[in-house]
Amino acid sequence: MATLKNFGFKRGSGILLSVSSLPSKYGIGGFGKEAYKFVDFLHECGIKCWQVLPLNPTSYGDSPYQSPASYAGNPYFIDPEILCEKGLLTRGELKAARHAARRVDYGFLFNERYPLLRCAYARFQGNGGEGSKEFRAFVKKGGERLCDYALFMALKVNYGFRPWVEWKSEHKNVECARKCKQEFASECGFWLWLQYEFNREWRELSDYAHEKGIVIIGDMPIYVAHDSVDVWRAPEEFLLDENYNPTVVAGCPPDGFSPDGQLWGNPIYNWEKMERDGFSWWCERVKASFELYDILRIDHFRGFAGYYTIPFGDETARGGSWRTAPGIALFTKIKEKFPRAKIIAEDLGFITDDVRELLSFTGFPGMKMLQFAFFDEDSEYLPRTYKTDNCVAYPGSHDADCVKSWCESLSREARRRFNRECPHRAGQSRAYDLIELSLSSRANLAVVPMQDYLELKNGEGRMNTPSVSEGNWTYRLCPRYNTERLKTKIRELNERTKRAAKRR
Fold this sequence. Notes:
With 504 residues, the protein is of the alpha/beta class. It has helices at residues 33-45, 80-85, 91-96, 106-126, 133-158, 169-172, 174-179, 185-211, 229-233, 271-276, 280-290, 327-337, 353-362, 403-408, 412-421, 430-440, 450-453, 458-461, 484-496; strands spanning 12-16, 49-51, 215-220, 248-252, 262-267, 295-298, 306-311, 321-324, 343-345, 366-369, 391-394, 445-449.
């Protein structure tokens, strides 16, 4: 497996920002001009990598880690202005679609964005777009997987977006549902076009990033949602009962931060069946991910060594238990299929010897979260304890406190360690001191959330609070972020720590 040294750069630096967080006049970030401006911003700051959160559609809870389709792209990221330039929307429709919200309002988007996209699709049809060589080639390349997604979404619309386990029996079973697809052909066409447009716009943005020397780091959640096309089209790959309900679900055990643990609710994989099939389901998913990203961060990597299961129907994670996963066998197969795969392992959380063994076997760089570094003497997250440069250092993440809030909330003992371990630079905030500590580490790659470069607090910039079901995934970057002062500050910091990329 490729280590960071094989990723094509040494001592790189990245910024973490979800596409949904980009500025936009239309209620959520997307693939329009503000995305291109952000790429320019990264380039001018000397940043090598843009790390994004999953690009999947979101559903109940708005989390990109609970998607109705692990292979599909989020239609909300399709840019209305690009559609207007192509003649698929009018100026009046574009103006009416504006939504000047400081946070992402997913309810508004669900009610307003899809009607707008349907207008664009109708014009695409009227212009003969579905008969174009490019569109037909896209659908052919997507194959059965893409067509199943379109059929699944058409059925979701037909059933008022109710979970697929509540559908009629002839639609619950994918083989039976495929026989009915002609009945839903028009609606399927809409969902096929959404994926076509999403992929076209993302590819053009990615190409622009590459021209600027920017590498895209994507994110693959370990689990998929139960109410998803993934489970609907391949229920045999999951531990389900005769009614297609999970027998056990995913989560995390109780700890000092969460006395009831975390109840995620995702179905658990049928690992024995997957191993017998040569992990074809996973190989297909990894292949699809690398069609979107240059480097892939795999979320909750420890779940490939051992995973926590909770009986379906339990209200907390207290009654769960640990099981063993065939991680070494899985990544042996992935190595055979994708020998040049560039993968980062999110190895945070309850880490045991079997997880360390799996990480060592794969050669993947793990993550070093500096916010975990000051609660124990000689913590493995302290930069001075790093045994290798084959790792990725983060001062914080999308699941953690903003660094500024974190610095202000430390206990007396943790603050004592922080003051001892993290040098203070005159005229610099303690938040930036922590950022500089991560950039100064021997880690070959260091990634900083954009909110932390802006020194935002939790109420302004926190993206997600685990175990809290509401108010997450809504952070939006202020359009006024792109100043010469900030770019100079970030570039000088990256130059000082010998991480700045050369300008092209």
